[in-house]
Amino acid sequence: MATVKNLVPNPSLKNNSTGWFSGSRVTGLSGFDRTTGYAGNSTSGDLITPQCTVVAGTVYVFSISVRTTSTKTVEWGIDWRTSSSYISSSTRVTMSVPANTTRRMVVVATAPVGATRALGVLQFPGSLTATMAMLTASSTVYDYFDGDSVGAVWDGTNGNSTSTLTISGKPQRGAVKITGTVVAGKNVSRAARGLVQFGGQLSYARKQMVEASTGRIYITGSTIGDVNVPQIVGYKPHWLGRLGLLRALPPPHYGQEVEQSYHETAGIQESLAGRATKDVLGYHREWKWTWRFLRDDEALPLLALRTSPPRAPIRLIDSYSGGNLCSADGAAGGSVSRSVERFAATAGQFAHRLMPSLPDELLWKLDGGIEWNLPGSVPGTLYVDDGPRWRVPVIPGERVVGRLWVAASGDTEVRAVLRPYDVNGVALPEVTGVATQAPAPRAEGLAWRAIRVVLDPPANAVSAVVGLRVTAPSGDRTVYATGFNVVHATAARLWSPGGGAPEVIVTEMEHTLPSPREHHMTLSLREV
Amino acid sequence: MQLADDVALADAIDGAERKIRWRLLVDWNRDGLYRHPLSDLSAFLDDIDADRDLASDLPAEVGLLQGAASAELNVRLAGAARVTEAGVLDVTGREMSIAKLLSPYRTDSPLYGVTKLGCEIRFEVGLMSSVGEKIIRQFTGKIRKVDVDRSTGRATIAALDGSEAFRRPITLGRGAMSLKEFNKHKHDPRKHPFYINSQLVIDQIARHNGYYASPPSHPTSIYAMTCHGGFAAEMGETRTPVGRTTTTYTPPYWKPGAHELLAPTGTWSQYATIPGLATSHYQAWEGTGLAMSAYVYWPGSVTGGTTTVDVLEAELGTGILFVLTVSNAGTVRARFKKGATTSSGPEMDLVPGWNSVGGYLQFEQHTALNGGPVEIHTYAGGLSSSNRFTSYGGVPAVGDDDWHRSVRTAYRTAVGVTNWSLFLVSPSNDLTAGDWLPAPADFVPTSSIAIGLNELAYVPDTAFEDSWSLLQDVVSAEAGLCGFTEDGFFFFRNRTMANADTTVRKVISNLRALKSLSITSSADGVRNVVTVTSQDGFMGSETTIWEPEDPAQLDSDPGETIFDIELEPNSYTSLDSRIPARTQEQWQDTETEVIKGFVAVRVDDNEVEVTSQVRAWFAQTGPRIGELLIDNDKSYPVRFALPTAEDSDPEVESTSAAFRISGYELVEGAEQVVAYRDESSIALHGERTLALPKTVWLQSKASGQVIAESILEFTDEPRPLLQDIPVVGDPRVQLGDLVQVSDPDGLGVINGYVVKINRRLSRSDGLADTYAIRAA
């Protein structure tokens, strides 16, 4: 059993403002997970938290939640002190806090020599409300807790003392009833079930495991004992399997996050003078899951990967990596090499080119795109990942959004296209986005415009490809496209590196049974 | 160096982080399209070596860039593909390792039943540059070995470049300068337009193996002569050049023609006649015909001479001629001549320069040659036009000498001609544009053949020799360089071109690309005396080239009898196939030797001479072999022997055979051994001799001098060899490139020629080259 201590006494001003400085206690707050806090005005001075006991040389994370009525820039940092005097301050973190929006500010710092006390200091113009201060002796950023949080207790006086959270090593189990608001197109019930297995540690799930935009789900159930889970946030799981048979992977258990690593196949040569030349031949990623505990129905499909390898490529939908399911785009292909081999056009010729200019969104991420030459007035469509091996996996009910950037040699009407396929590779009716004018180049370079298209995959869809349709070119046209992006989401997202749905192989699987029908498993996958 | 001027590629190659791209393709379907589902093996590539090296007769330490450049590819493959149980590549199938895919015994592999050995394989490698992907061909060749390993699931493929398939047995077209012609101008080589440049021979070998620097001859050709540096036909026979005097023939007799290959320069007023013989039997029948095509050079204007010259001529029967006539006004027309009657196809204009021209006789009846209707087509500049003639005079008729009667040909050098071929036209196919030679600029060559340094007086006799071995003999004789480029293009460079690169193509800097450096200097690399042995040969006067060893050897029953006759090497048969009958008196006339003919006697009575109704023809049907036809219209067997005396014992057979086939034999010239010296080098290093091996392919003393001096230029001083120099890979570098190895604070700065390349692409080292470099 591990414990974490919030070293801030009276962290949310539950009963009074003891220890806080220059402001005044407020109650009935909204927008925070606590309804009590501290409000102040810059004319009165900085808002300062109660003193906390620290040990010199230890790394601390100090956090606080703030809210203002108008957008303003807020600074947050730590003042280190002895029992009687000021020593130094940590680096201040600065955040622009939008109006009526709660933001959590976090600073990580090491206590200097001689420090025995720490104070959190907020600086800001105008007025500000703050609460939920937390100082933990760790480099890990935990979600806020105090003695009123699930699994945590007050170390002393209720509300006015430090608090300790106990992290259960053994998950709670049992039938769980899930009620609440589920966002359409998201299979959150499955995700939630996984979280409940953490036995109430949901609050401390790592951020990257959290789907921020989902609704609230309330879970009750006797088997989770006396722990009340008032609110959880669902997140998207990884999906694994062949097209049409994709199955959500159980969420990893707390402290056993998915290990994802990126590998480069490259040779390094060194000249007589010592200068190195690196020849990059390809890239691939690897994933590793560890589950401390799985039920039969969760473990057996994974074991089947080993005992009866599927006669089709295993695809992984990597929900953590940003979600761009394309394996190819204008500049970065899959794991092996960049090329245009995964592109197909119904007319004209195309080739990969480094682009003289790119949208700001893509700078430092991509260096080129597709140059597509269309003869005469011939319309055409350029599809990406158009091959049974490369198509983006889709799950009926899980909305996908395609997005890409386009530019053209002259005003040209373009649309984004998503074309679904069934399990036999037969194309299903495709959907098209809004007709848009791809603008002609400007003096400073190509004028890029993002276009999008939404597909709600029909029941028999297993994959899809995104494309660019030029509907009515007038004369010869050169169209440029880059930043192809397909995500499982309700809205378009900014571009992220492709390969979110790679073909993978199982490279390692460990399976132990610590007790009957309890499976301890690790699963390692490698992109091919 | 490939893509030497591509700045973006050069920048990418010199970059600190290089993104390597590659393609490995195999044409499993052997159709040149590389469309088999498994043609692209790029994803299976584990590592690969492409080696380019030289095979040479000269000592290695001489290090000359000469000999046969050959390339070898060794590929290691790993990985798997998904295959259905029906053997179809499909993502819904199960995984099959590359070893299983390539196994000849996996019936469920998409490659089952595919003969893998001999399939063409290509390897390309390149980099991502600032303007996109740049891929450069590194190897084109044929698979010669495939290994698969069950335990590892891996496979290896070994391949050789075009030399692997450059093995077709070849019999070179023959030709020889006449001794009489040579002796006329023995001390004025400029007067010898009939020397044969080695380009002709090398081109013939290349063409025979499918590599063309100029268009191939028509597939149904019965006679073809490229004229690329000599008058030796690639199909059919060519013998001693005869014709008018050449005293006013102004050199150069040969200069680059339509495809930068040698072509005869025309001399309108004083032309020579080059005879030839199509040995394929020709028979006209209804609807079929005979055509000829060639490139003809029209200089724009000519002076002197006659109004028209039958530049290209085919004699179909006695006095029956099919000709292409060029006029001094710059026109061409096909003509059909029979006896005194001449009928002409339309006259068409030539343009100054090289013209694709042709003519076509289309016979409408089997008896066309004896007077039936004929349509005469003329082709020039992409257009064809015809005139029709309904009948011809009946004389002269084509007689019995049609048997194996070859078509005699003649080229009159009034204007330059190349790529002349005489071809049959199938009755079911009219001629189309594709039957004619393309416009010179439209032809896409697959070989590049330089003008040779060797001038040959004769083409040595060959019979079904290995093409690659023969090529190396010819190329070695002049210390030239031949081989295949990375994209499968055949090339020949002569000695003076082999080290012709004077521009440093790449600086291999110790700061950037040079990974290690060692230099070997050896006195063995110095050769300051080069000895050359040459021996020419000429066609002598007509003489007997074959006689029976036994009088009874050719005994012939009544009717036709055909004998196979084996000929001696370097003998040339006569153009005239008829063997005349002689009398005993003529045979024994000591004043006039009978070099061709026969005397027949009755087999059952040697005393009785048979002076009529026995006829004989001889035709060469292949290299060193021919057929002899005896047509015996008597009712008894005949023997070719002199009659025995009347009073001799009738049971005693004649021992004096009397049958002679005439032709020409090679008269070997004197063997000349000449030493060429570099005295300044000798003073420094002492005499160090390189003796070029004697070969039938080095015949001219003058050629030997050019070759020897060219070698001396590169061997007169020690030129260090930089062996096994590891370098950061550069896919542009080719054999023969002049590069600069720059190690200014180490072993110095050296300019040299790349004479050996190992190019390796591996996952552990990336793209790495290892060179052998000979200092320039």
Blueprint (SSEs and pairs):
The complex is a heterodimer of chains A (528) and B (776).
Chain A: E1 2-6, E2 24-26, E3 37-41, E4 47-48, E5 52-53, E6 59-67, E7 72-81, E8 86-89, E9 93-97, E10 103-110, E11 117-123, E12 127-136, E13 152-154, E14 163-167, E15 177-180, H1 188-196, E16 216-220, E17 229-233, E18 239-241, E19 247-248, E20 259-270, E21 276-294, H2 296-307, E22 314-317, E23 343-345, E24 349-354, E25 368-374, E26 380-384, E27 392-393, E28 400-408, E29 412-421, E30 431-432, E31 436-438, E32 449-455, E33 463-470, E34 477-488, E35 503-515, E36 518-527
Antiparallel strand pairs in A: 1-14, 2-3, 3-12, 4-11, 5-11, 6-10, 6-12, 7-8, 7-9, 7-11, 13-14, 15-16, 16-17, 18-19, 18-22, 20-21, 21-36, 22-35, 23-26, 24-25, 25-34, 26-33, 27-33, 28-32, 28-34, 29-30, 29-31, 29-33, 35-36
Chain B: H1 7-13, E1 17-26, E2 45-55, E3 67-77, E4 80-83, E5 94-97, H2 98-102, E6 120-129, E7 132-148, E8 155-161, E9 169-170, H3 179-184, E10 196-197, H4 198-208, E11 221-225, E12 237-238, E13 242-243, E14 254-256, E15 262-264, E16 272-278, E17 289-298, E18 308-317, E19 320-327, E20 331-338, E21 341-344, E22 348-349, E23 353-363, E24 374-380, E25 383-389, E26 407-412, E27 417-425, E28 447-449, E29 455-456, E30 465-466, H5 467-477, E31 481-484, E32 490-493, H6 495-498, E33 506-509, E34 529-539, E35 543-546, E36 559-566, E37 571-573, E38 578-579, H7 584-587, E39 597-598, E40 600-602, E41 609-610, E42 614-622, E43 625-632, E44 638-640, E45 659-677, H8 679-685, E46 689-691, H9 701-715, E47 721-728, E48 738-743, E49 748-762, E50 766-775
Parallel strand pairs in B: 3-31, 28-32, 33-48, 34-46
Antiparallel strand pairs in B: 1-6, 2-3, 2-49, 3-8, 4-5, 6-7, 7-8, 9-30, 10-29, 11-27, 12-16, 13-16, 14-15, 16-26, 17-23, 17-27, 18-19, 18-26, 19-20, 20-21, 20-22, 23-24, 24-25, 31-32, 34-45, 35-45, 36-43, 37-45, 38-42, 39-45, 40-41, 40-44, 42-43, 47-50, 48-49, 49-50
